[in-house]
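Deliverable D2.4 — example input (structure tokens):
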């Protein structure tokens, strides 16, 4: 038989194989991350009819070997695995494209495979899987101790684990104060001070409002910051909510210096008993508030006083039948008399006070001090005498007066007498044990207890000073320290428990101490207006230490390094894991396993089981896009043409060889 006939057959087979490769490439032109293949030819075998000979001593030259080829064969089928396909936008966050030479690692439950197909989805168990096969995407988990990725043997990424659907609450631990403290702001020099609030969370995620105040203490460079109250989410003070005596049973800010004294008091009028179930008692402040006459002018002005009944949380009401007269004395400075509510003007030359003049007048000398003092809104003021303070600064006045009041009480204004109506037990002779807490808002509290039907009471007066000194540099007005020299921060310290007035133990361990940074506050003139603000969280504006309520999962994103991060409704971001990748010394040596999968071979190199961070080799992942097939149709069609012509030419070899054989057979005829 003719050798050319077999060469033609070999050529046909080889071109058919090449056509199969081309057809597979074209069929996968839209297959995600498909890598095109290319076949190369090699000659098959050669029959040597005469071996080569070299030159000899007889003068004959060498002769090349005589070899006749027997056709072509498939030399190699290579995959353009390192050629990057184009990006196709899908806007699906679980569609991920690799840029670089790495591969995703997926597992079918028994072995690992490798793929460039990043069309992933979430299965019913919350696992990140391939959309077409359900193979689990492998990566690294989060170390529970450090909160960061632990690069270990790859495992399935269960990103929608039930633990990841919600974020835990976090107690507030940091806050900072910013803005300007203007010492001329009237609120700074008022009894209540410049009040500022900020929100905190406890470890259970409940929100509270911390109420603090800034106070002037008569110095241009030093002020006092104190804790006033803590309110729950409904605006109820924790003091009232837990039936406590004061906020310092909950938390302290700065020093806590408390002095107390106990006295027995007998009501002016014996309590009246109706013979059935209750009796009434009236307690005048003029007797209860021992020593309070030093500030009698403030009392007479109707200073707000908080009276609470811890038994039922209600407001104590008072009758208006009786009146009380308070004798008081107070020293008023020139600065006070020249500001509201007096609005007087002091003349250094005459040493006389004048009313502030209207336009075109010189003002009227003050002679009727009863009228002047009544400018505060007093009623029933009498016997007012005013004398200059001998050793004081020019313009200081000592004011003595009597003030008679008819007691009135409402929700915001407490006067100098309050009445109490108490329920009696069945045995009317039994002493009632009731506790009432009275706070004057200026550091003094009064606990009234063991009130009996005869009108007697045991009264404990406590004077408490708390808060911290806030000091500024005199030359520049910048912050100097809070509390003690060299300190930029002060701590709002919560107690672990508190005892209510009724004897119940209140557990406070859900609260966390809050460290407050004051270093950004300045003492500048700002038109008499403070711009102080207290913000929870770190001073750098981050959310560390800010605290938060529980949150629900609202979004997940995949970073360029493959890190999967969850976002929650409370502003928290949580790392869920990281998609690891595999890299091979010879990625073209990987074996195609179908379904866009590859398997490692002896020529590709082994997978170490751990994988790599894609950014180590300069690659990255892009979410919301997929890698398209890298098949070049123009190149495939061109190759198809040459393959067709090659196949056609090889078929002509067979037909021509057949004609020659036919002629040979015909010789016998």
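Example output (designed residues):
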């Amino acid at each position: 038989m003719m050798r050319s006939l077999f060469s033609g057959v070999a050529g046909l087979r080889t071109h058919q194989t090449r056509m199969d490769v081309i057809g597979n490439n074209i069929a996968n032109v839209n297959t995600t991350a498909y890598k095109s293949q290319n076949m190369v030819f090699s000659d098959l075998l050669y029959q040597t009819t005469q071996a080569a000979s070299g030159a000899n001593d007889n003068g004959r030259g060498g002769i090349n070997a005589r070899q006749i080829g027997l056709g072509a064969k498939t030399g190699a089928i290579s995959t353009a695995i390192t050629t990057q396909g184009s990006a196709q936008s899908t806007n699906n966050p679980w569609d991920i494209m690799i840029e670089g030479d790495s591969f995703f690692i997926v597992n079918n439950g028994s072995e690992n495979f490798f793929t460039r197909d990043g069309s992933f989805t979430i299965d019913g168990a919350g696992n990140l899987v391939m959309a077409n096969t359900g193979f689990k995407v492998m990566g690294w988990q989060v170390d529970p101790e450090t909160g960061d990725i632990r690069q270990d043997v790859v495992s399935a990424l269960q990103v929608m684990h039930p633990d990841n659907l919600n974020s835990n609450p976090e107690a507030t631990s940091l806050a900072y104060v910013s803005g300007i403290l203007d010492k001329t702001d009237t609120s700074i020099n008022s009894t209540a001070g410049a009040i500022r609030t900020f929100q905190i969370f406890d470890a259970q995620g409940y929100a509270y409002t911390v109420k603090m105040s800034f106070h002037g203490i008569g110095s241009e460079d030093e002020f006092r910051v104190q804790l006033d109250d803590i309110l729950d989410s409904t605006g109820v003070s924790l003091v009232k909510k837990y039936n406590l005596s004061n906020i310092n049973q909950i938390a302290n800010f700065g020093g806590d210096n408390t002095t107390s004294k106990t006295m027995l008091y007998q009501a002016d009028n014996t309590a009246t008993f109706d013979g059935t179930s209750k009796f009434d008692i009236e307690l005048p402040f003029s007797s209860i508030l021992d020593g309070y006459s030093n500030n009698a002018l403030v009392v007479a002005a109707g200073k707000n006083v908080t009276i609470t009944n811890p038994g039922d949380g209600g407001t104590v009401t008072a009758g208006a039948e009786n009146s009380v007269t308070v004798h008081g004395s107070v020293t008023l400075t020139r600065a006070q008399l020249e500001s509201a509510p007096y609005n007087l003007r002091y003349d250094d030359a005459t040493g006389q006070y004048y009313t502030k003049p209207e336009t075109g007048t010189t003002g009227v000398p003050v002679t009727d001090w009863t009228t002047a003092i009544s400018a505060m809104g007093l009623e029933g003021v009498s016997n007012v005498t005013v004398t200059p303070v001998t050793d004081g600064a020019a313009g200081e006045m000592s004011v003595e007066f009597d003030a008679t009041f008819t007691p009135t009480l409402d929700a915001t204004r407490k006067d100098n007498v309050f009445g109490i109506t108490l329920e009696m037990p069945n045995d009317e002779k039994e002493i009632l044990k009731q506790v009432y807490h009275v706070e004057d808002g200026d550091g003094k509290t009064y606990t009234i207890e063991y009130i009996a039907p005869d009108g007697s009471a045991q009264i404990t007066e406590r004077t408490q000073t708390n808060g911290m000194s806030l000091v500024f540099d005199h030359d520049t007005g910048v912050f100097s320290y809070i509390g003690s020299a060299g300190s930029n921060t002060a701590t709002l310290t919560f107690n672990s428990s508190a005892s209510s007035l009724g004897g119940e133990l209140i557990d406070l361990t859900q609260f966390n101490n809050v460290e407050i940074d004051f270093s950004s506050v300045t003492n500048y003139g700002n038109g008499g207006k403070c711009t102080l603000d207290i913000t929870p969280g770190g001073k750098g504006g981050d959310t560390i230490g800010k605290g938060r309520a529980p949150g629900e999962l609202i979004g997940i994103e995949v970073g360029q390094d493959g890190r999967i991060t969850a976002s929650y409704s409370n502003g928290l971001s949580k790392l869920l894991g990281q998609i690891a990748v595999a890299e091979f010394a010879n990625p073209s040596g990987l074996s195609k396993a179908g379904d866009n999968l590859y398997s490692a071979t002896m020529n590709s190199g082994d997978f170490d089981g751990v994988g790599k961070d894609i950014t180590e080799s300069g690659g990255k992942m892009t979410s919301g896009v997929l890698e398209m097939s890298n098949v070049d149709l123009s190149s495939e069609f061109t190759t198809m043409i040459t393959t067709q012509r090659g196949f056609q030419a090889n078929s002509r070899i067979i037909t021509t060889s057949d004609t020659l054989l036919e002629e040979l057979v015909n010789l016998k005829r």
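The chain is about 10% helix and 40% strand.
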